[in-house]
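User: Could you go from structure to sequence for me? I need the amino acid at each position, not a summary. Structure tokens:
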């Protein structure tokens, strides 16, 4: 069994190249710093088990963002129903 691990590295956007939809989503979420920390850790250690603090921080950030988004959508839905 091979123990080489991952060969992850953050991709640098080239001029004229379209932005990756996933990168845009993460950037808009406010969790980009946590995401990049996971990527940097993976590039350095090439073992996700050694990156659990970064993975957990990213997971927590995304969970908080999703909760905020749900609350916002619920408020909009309630506002739309009272204005109809």
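Assistant: Here is the amino acid at each position, in order:
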């Amino acid at each position: 069994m091979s123990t080489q691990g991952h060969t992850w590295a953050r991709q640098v956007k080239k001029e004229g190249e379209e932005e990756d939809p996933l990168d845009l989503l993460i950037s808009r979420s406010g969790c980009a710093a946590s995401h990049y920390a996971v990527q940097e850790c993976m590039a350095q250690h090439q073992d996700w088990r050694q990156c659990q603090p970064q993975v957990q921080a990213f997971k927590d950030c995304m969970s908080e963002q999703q909760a905020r988004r749900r609350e916002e959508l619920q408020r909009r839905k309630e506002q739309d129903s009272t204005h109809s």
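One structural detail worth keeping in mind: The chain has a mean pLDDT of 85.
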